[in-house]
Write a structure and sequence with these properties.
- By secondary structure, the chain is mostly helical.
- It has 16 helices and no strands.
- The protein has helices spanning 7-25, 28-32, 40-58, 60-65, 67-72, 74-98, 100-109, 111-123, 129-150, 162-190, 196-218, 226-251, 256-262, 265-278, 284-311, 332-336.
- The longest helix is centred in the middle third of the chain and has 29 residues, at 162-190.
- The chain is globular and about 50 Å long.
Length: 337
């Protein structure tokens, strides 16, 4: 029989899972550049569609076991599934129009604000000073990354036309809102004692079904060459399937607003890979933005550990509010089903 883990330790584990997922997600923009003839809709549909269906297949027994609870919360499941279907289409199109760094930065950089607003309005959750500080650092860092990427290249040519960039930024905002919404929906299911595997499998599996028509309509280039097929397979199996399994484990232990803030690591990873692999140039402002994003993550992940070491067991500090996940943390067997 498993023992419940302490709030501080489980929150730390959840944060590490989200960070690991963010590193995997940060590779998607670079991976997509190896299939330039595959459109963004096809990339998004194969990545999230097949990845989501695979999650549902792996979680089939858990979904069947918890079907009554999922049916009770079918509105939340449907909301999450629709957002899962819309997110990759908006995200990858945003990157194609505005560039890898700008599309990633806007999509992920504004998601914590959307997530916090959802939790504040729907759940009445109060935002902590630590989260506010971390979010400010992360947003400033992502803004610097965006400015750095939007700066014209050294040869005097712009990276993208103004109209394409503006449309890409708009689609990035749509991606941010849908990312925040499906993260909130999954977290809400998990905190209602539906194991993360079943919750994520149901939401992402249904979202994958919604993406199948898009994949059938746009996915022909994916099978036109081995390299395109390899990119599609990688996107579905590694960043989407493995990444979202890790993200689901993380959502079992941290609020959606914290998870979306931690995922600000993704644009930093994407920017570094764009420099190292794709050959893009990142000016000083971009590196400063990357440093601020890392500082944001340090604030979010290091504070609980320092409090635990200096003040004793979690929840005993005078004047310190209990962690947001107190009373909602699952045991490992509940989280993984």
């Amino acid at each position: 029989m498993s023992r419940p883990t302490g709030p501080g330790r489980s929150a730390g584990t959840g944060a590490l899972c989200v960070l690991a997922a963010s590193v995997l997600w940060g590779t998607t923009g670079t991976a997509a550049t190896f299939a330039p003839r595959v459109g963004p809709l096809a990339i998004g549909a194969v990545a999230m569609g097949l990845g989501g269906l695979l999650q549902a297949l792996v979680a089939a027994l858990g979904i069947a076991r918890h079907a009554p609870r999922l049916r009770e919360r079918r509105g939340t499941v449907l909301l999450g599934a629709v957002c899962v279907a819309v997110y990759p289409l908006a995200f990858y199109t945003s990157m194609r129009l505005a560039g890898v760094a700008v599309g990633t930065v806007v999509s992920l950089g504004t998601a914590p604000l959307a997530s916090a607003l959802i939790e504040r309005v729907v759940d009445g959750r109060r935002l902590t000073r630590r989260w506010t500080t971390a979010a400010a650092l992360g947003l400033l860092g992502t803004a610097l990354l965006c400015v750095a990427e939007a700066t014209p290249a050294g040869d005097g040519t712009g990276r993208a036309s103004m109209a394409a960039t503006l449309l890409g930024v708009g689609l990035g905002l749509v991606a941010a809102a849908t990312y925040a919404l499906y993260s909130w929906a999954a977290h809400r299911l998990i905190t209602r004692r539906i194991p993360s595997r079943a919750a994520m499998g149901a939401v992402f599996g249904l979202g994958g079904l919604l993406l199948l028509p898009v994949l059938l309509a746009t996915g022909a280039p994916l099978v036109s060459s081995w390299s395109n097929a390899a990119v599609g397979t990688y996107m579905a199996l590694v960043p989407m399937f493995t990444g979202y399994v890790l993200f689901g484990w993380g959502l079992a232990h941290v609020p959606a607003s914290t998870a979306t803030t931690l995922s600000l690591l993704e644009p930093a990873v994407a920017a570094v890979l764009a420099v190292l692999v794709v050959g893009e140039r990142l000016p000083a402002a971009g590196w400063a933005g990357t440093a601020l994003v890392i500082a944001c993550l340090a604030v979010l992940t290091a504070a609980p550990r320092r409090r635990k070491q200096s003040e004793g067991p979690p929840g005993t500090a005078p004047g310190e509010a209990p962690p947001a996940t107190a009373g909602l943390t699952m045991t490992p067997d509940q989280a993984a089903d």
